[in-house]
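call fold(seq) -> tokens
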Amino acid sequence: MTLDTAPATPGTAHRPFLGPDFLLGSETAKRLFALAGDVPVVDYHCHLSAQELAEDRRFATITEAWLGADHYKWRLMRGAGVDERLITGDAGDFERFEAFAGVVGRAIGNPVQHWAHLELQRYFGIDDVLDAGSARDIYDRANAQLQRPEFSARGLVAASGVEVICTTDDPLDALEHHAALAAAHDFDTLVVPGFRPDGVLRIERDAFAPYVERLAALTGGAITDFESLVAAIEQRIAYFDERGCTVSDQSLEVFPKRPTTDAEADAILTRRLAGETLTADDADDFRWALMRRLAKLYHARDWVMELHLNALRDANPRLMRTIGHDTGFDAIGEDRPIEALRHFLGELEDADALPRTLLFTVDEGQNKQLAVLATCFPGSGIAAKVQLGNAWWFNDTIAGMAAQIRTFAEVGFLPAAVGMVTDSRSFLSYPRHEYFRRIVVDIVAQWVEAGEFPANDETLASILRDIFHDNAVRYFRFDVPLVGAR
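ret:
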């Protein structure tokens, strides 16, 4: 069954599934998408492997490329009752693919159903509906194409029109794969590191003390107190900065609530390095002080600070122990961080040390609070210096993205938004940018057709190109040309 020939109910009219006008509900939307929907991709937050890009990984099967590390797909399969052996277990590649096909063919309303079919279309030219009946044919056709040279990791990125990739990297990383990519003459995508200091922020974890020992060894000095810890981190920030990093990423289940001093953090660190078990309040107090120092270091380097908020990690302890962290068992937390963020951002503003900041939340009920709070911290010459990040993770849906876009527009300045992030581990994920762009264009077209904004194509196309590309280039200071300047 092909996408354009799915049988309709007699007497009804319908659009073809994922046809050329997918998500574009008017002639205005179609026209605007043609004007602005095909600019290069700037992916400023993802979890792609720089090593796999440097080595130009090849994929033996579409199962490797699609299901190897994509816990969006794993969650969908679990929701349909698929046995874990067919998700992360020892099942064969076709068994796993067939199980996914049987689920995605019935996953009405789920964005993974859209993404999977967009990926089949855009990369493989396969317009058939993926389901249990078509699984074998599509599996074989996709695998045959994966053997072609252009279907390597770099080839897939190039085919997607990706101009910038910002990976997520541990401060201890040597970044040798980024260096190899920077020296490559046959790969035009700019790949830069992103600084993710989880290892020093999660002081309550068993891994903290060994991590600090490795940090000390790498930076050439003992870490015995708070100041020596910050000095070691500053060394690593300088190392990342020299290699093109302009962004940091903090993932926080609960934003610390109590402003604490460096002296208080020093006392907590001393107890922890002596082997003492900390309370949750101790850990949060330490995080506040360390995050304040980190933010000041980011500001000094002119970096962006990303705050990812409210993800409730590892909700299923049994399966976390069995399968591990970051395998699709996270949830939406209940933290309400607005008052704490007000103090945190305000303290940095008072010290003239507030970096450009993106506030991401998995709780879309906090969109308006965060978007309004962001407008309280303007920056001269920097549009939306602090801003509500794009709909993230569980909100990567039509409704979730639309809600974030409308909220940003209603209480902020949408033309300054820095656009979509994939937050992905899959080299086949880039049609999600097209998904986002179609949603934005359709909302803008609705405003125009309702008489809520002038029908000036030049102005509209400029706004859309800024959201889809140029704003991110400016905000993160990526060394690529603006679309508007080409």
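The two ends are 42 Å apart (CA to CA).
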